[in-house]
Amino acid sequence: MGNLVQAELRKTTTTGLWWGLLIPTAVLALGWGLATGLLGQFFVDFASSSDVDEVSDFLGVSPDQWKVSLFGMARAINISTIFPMIFGAMAISGEINRRTITTTFLTAPSRMHSMLAKMLVYVLWGAIYGLVIMLFVSVGVVLTSESGQLPDAGGWAMLTLVCVLSSILMTMFGVGVGALIPNVAGTVVLLLLYFLVIENVLHGVLAYLEVPAVIGFLPNGSINGLTGSVAVDLFLSTAGVVPPEIEDVLRAIAGAGGALDWWWSGLVFLAWSGIVFAGGWAVTQAKDIT
Amino acid sequence: MHDGSGLIAVQNLTKQFGSVTAVQNLSFTVSPGSVTGFLGPNGAGKTTTLRMLLGLVKPTGGTATINGRPFHQLGQPGRVVGAVLEAQGFHPARSARDHLRVYAAAIGVPDAQADQVLGLVGLGTAADRKVGGFSLGMKQRLALATALLGDPQVLVLDEPANGLDPEGIAWLRTFLQSYARMGRTVLISSHLLAEVEQTVDQVVIISRGQTMFYGPLEQLRQSQQQRVLVQPSDVNALAMALRNEGVQTIEQLPDGRLAVSGVDSKHVADSALRAGVSIYGIQEEQVDLERLFFQLTSGQYAGYAPAPYQQQQQGGWA
């Protein structure tokens, strides 16, 4: 198994795809980080200058101590992890496309061994992407935010953890879909459409139907919940007592409307990844490589 | 684990793709120590058979084993069998050396093996070039290098001469023969008998998914009766004389010559002398393997011969 993992790792490092996708990932993360700080600043200025003092009294802290950057950071992580997901999606579909899958299967004890080795390597890549995303989001946020709006050390650590987790899970999900739909273009288009359009529409519909709880169980809803819930929790931990209605609004801002606890969200998305991977495995196992 | 015999055994192998029967009840064995040709016209089921042997295509029925085991039970398949298949791809942006190092890692052989096989197939100087810029022949050599990485006991090659220049084909021939002489098993497919005739010792000939012949090439040659082609001054006199001596299979060819089977040219010449017939030309026909091959595999996808032009009959009253 160690041999196959090394082989799969070499496959990823001997072509340019890993940095070809890592550059836009970093740029996007940095951009979101910068925008987060600016928007947060704008919001805090607005809240401090006008007559929204009631809200600040309500939350128990003055607006300049609101850790508003948390929400933007959660959103930035959600958007940026689209790239590691695409990277994962190319793992198997790309090999089928280029017909290198033949040699891969000829040199592995079984197809299951190949797929597991691939999964392990892409978990590692997911973690690397996650760390890069966190780094660039943080740089962006720190550059444009007042220190009062930034999380404390524990908050940074927690956000880093969920960012890396989220990136790993998204990569695994991509690997599974790439195996299920062994076609590069089809896989990428479907994933982008689903995560950027289809599920957002679904969220709207579910909210309209007043069953927002379902959102937390959908793929994008659960992966958003992983980071969004942590952001809301961190925000609330320094904001005093907050009534449930306001908390719902905050969750929606963080992209975690209807979401469960962060670890629950993570488990739900892990289950989605598992289902997709099992389907991809079944397809790959039965496939005639001609 | 496998038995290390180097034996390939295909038994009652059948594959159906939907309603199309690609391979039907195919059986043959391939022994180590010789190069075996796997022959048949395009679409006869050669590639499908080889892919079933290599675990890439699931048979509908029957078994295909290497060293007594189906492919997925070989444990470390890359060290037992190496394969060059059609439509086996490379990542165009990967260098030849990187490509080999990926699979060297998978098989579990040291990286130095990558450079060694590159030298073996004559690609040593192209090691750092990206495969995307390789010619068809170079890709074929790289595919062979990949197959040789694990120093396998069994080598399976699907149409390996495709894309190779004459020099490359000659090199491949020598290489495969010496590989087999080391006691290893070599199975190579082709749709042209002439292409592999000088390379192989054994042949398996299939057509329409079924085995038509399987055995030594020499036996195939001998299965064709030898004929003497003779051009006598008097065809009828010679035919009569031969018949009187008990020779029955005499055939008149369109060019006026006689084709006599079952006797050698000396016998025919002596008969002609006794019958007072002059001989203008005589030759023993070389066995034409290609024609045999056509006979064995004929029919598949053969078009109808154009019908001779016939004047329409205009009825009986004219």
UniProtKB/TrEMBL annotation, chain A:
Keywords: Membrane, Transmembrane, Transmembrane helix. It comes from the Bacteria. The chain crosses the membrane at residues 21-44, 68-92, 120-143, 155-181, 188-209, 262-283. This is ABC transporter permease subunit. It comes from Lentzea indica.
Automatic annotation (TrEMBL), chain B:
GO terms for molecular function: ATP binding. Residues 8-233 form the ABC transporter domain. The keyword ATP-binding applies. SUPFAM superfamilies: P-loop containing nucleoside triphosphate hydrolases. Keywords: ATP-binding, Nucleotide-binding, Transport. The keyword ATP-binding applies. Belongs to the ABC transporter superfamily. This is ABC transporter ATP-binding protein. It comes from Lentzea indica. The lineage of its organism: Bacteria, Bacillati, Actinomycetota, Actinomycetes, Pseudonocardiales.
